[in-house]
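Quick one, tokens below:
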């Protein structure tokens, strides 16, 4: 199951939709959605605490280059979550459960939580 979480998350980091991920991995769409939903449930408390009371510094934030270059290690996850742009993005988007980059960030949080 852990490999599936990583494979789904890598594809979300590449901005892939659920339908395409399911096809690429030979999974049911519902199974991909369950993996993403579990990541959301498991990481929400951590993310809420991480950005609690945070004032957003910018209106538009493009963190795509930061998440796309991830090597999916705990070290990079820590670097990512120390970046002010990423923290602003989390503060703005953590309630958007269809945001692909948030799913990617959630996987990085998941790496730190294990």
């Amino acid at each position: 199951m852990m490999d599936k979480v990583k494979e789904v998350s890598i594809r979300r980091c590449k901005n892939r939709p659920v339908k395409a991920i399911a096809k690429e991995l030979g999974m049911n769409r519902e199974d991909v959605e369950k993996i993403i939903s579990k990541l959301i449930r498991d990481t929400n408390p951590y993310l809420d605490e991480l950005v609690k009371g945070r004032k957003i510094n910018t209106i538009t934030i493009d963190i795509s280059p930061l998440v796309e270059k991830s090597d999916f290690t705990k070290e990079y996850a820590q670097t990512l979550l120390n970046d002010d742009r990423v923290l602003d993005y989390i503060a703005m988007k953590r309630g958007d459960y269809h945001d692909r980059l948030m799913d990617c960030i959630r996987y990085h949080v998941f790496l730190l939580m294990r």
